[in-house]
């Protein structure tokens, strides 16, 4: 059995390598510009929690992605004669999204580091800034220079230039990496870290909108290859790169970044800070709740059906199918859900264009199905073998025995375990935020970034999750009581 499972995993790995290596878009001649013009859209990947580059505002109850980078993207799309489409993703997911064709370009305050240049192409630099260190204002006197950070916790977003700069130029500091700018600021304000390194424009924006913070010059040294921000494109996109560079040249020649785009971003920042109450952002939480419930319901129904199918197969007479079902369950249970979500979205997305919401629901169903199959299989095994013998003596077929005798008793046996798995599934929906699904945790991060408040959005999300799980627990307890009551009446 172990040998078979090993072979299956090896075949899956080879298939994935084959999919990537045989991707037609990777081998075709440069049609990057023609493809964008033909479809009429330029898809911009961005992580909208980095003011003033890109962030979200709550304008008249509607969520809107704005910022300097968005304005640049609009001008590029206008020059190309196409429509700009902005796709939200976590910063860590941007490069995979570009390489798998989910986005046409990354415009998200990204620095063209040598490591990144190995996997993607970059346009000309469109904006250059220094690196600043954010501190709690009352700690300003404690850090007169960079040497004062020795032994202290200095944080940055993982995968960013700032993260690498801390590692190389503050080797004696305790490096802390986080995936969200909002979490970085929250960690700083709650004294989980001592300092946060960010680009000067973003650090200044946070300091201006939060009187408890201050931004100081980091005096970091950057090479010419790292200095500034550029737009990332898929390898071999020479034609699209040249066209975008022409737009960037025009933008820089007219000085629009300083004279227009940064000023526009500043006005939008005032929209967010005008009312930072959680009631003002109730629409964000309601939208997140809607998607959380949708994913959870699909996961519960789809996972239950898949789990039942897998459990029946494992009791079947067809040995190869039993082995495949066992291998599937072991593989899914042996890999993290987050990795599975990214594989469905980015890996399978090479062959079929799957949107983020669909990919998240598919991954949740596939994952929950494996766990539920084990619960169902255990329940079937717990049914008294005499029940099968009695059914056979009455002339019932195997299918009829399973449907009318085994499964009803199995449901009563496994009901508490099913309830626990369903509650875990609801909480697992938070994982899909990594691919940009606007469920509750994703919306929580947006509210944190927009309002510069860290704890209040977390408290609201906790209450919402608790209410959902509490209601589900009550519902499950009600039906468990009915099952037990019905069984007592039958025995009586």
From TrEMBL:
InterPro entries: AA_ABC_transptr_permease_3TM, ArtM/GltK/GlnP/TcyL/YhdX-like, MetI-like, MetI-like_sf, Solute-binding_3/MltF_N. The keyword Cytoplasm does not apply. Its main location: membrane. The chain crosses the membrane at residues 291-313, 343-366, 458-479. PROSITE patterns: ABC_TM1 (PS50928). The keyword Membrane applies. It is found in: Cell membrane. It holds the Pfam family BPD_transp_1. Residues 1-28 form the signal peptide. CDD domains: TM_PBP2. Keywords: Amino-acid transport, Cell membrane, Membrane, Signal, Transmembrane, Transmembrane helix, Transport. It is a multi-pass membrane protein. Residues 289-473 form the ABC transmembrane type-1 domain. PANTHER family: GLUTAMINE TRANSPORT SYSTEM PERMEASE PROTEIN GLNP (PTHR30614:SF20), MEMBRANE COMPONENT OF AMINO ACID ABC TRANSPORTER (PTHR30614). Belongs to the binding-protein-dependent transport system permease family. HisMQ subfamily. This is ABC transporter substrate-binding protein/permease. It comes from Lactiplantibacillus plajomi.
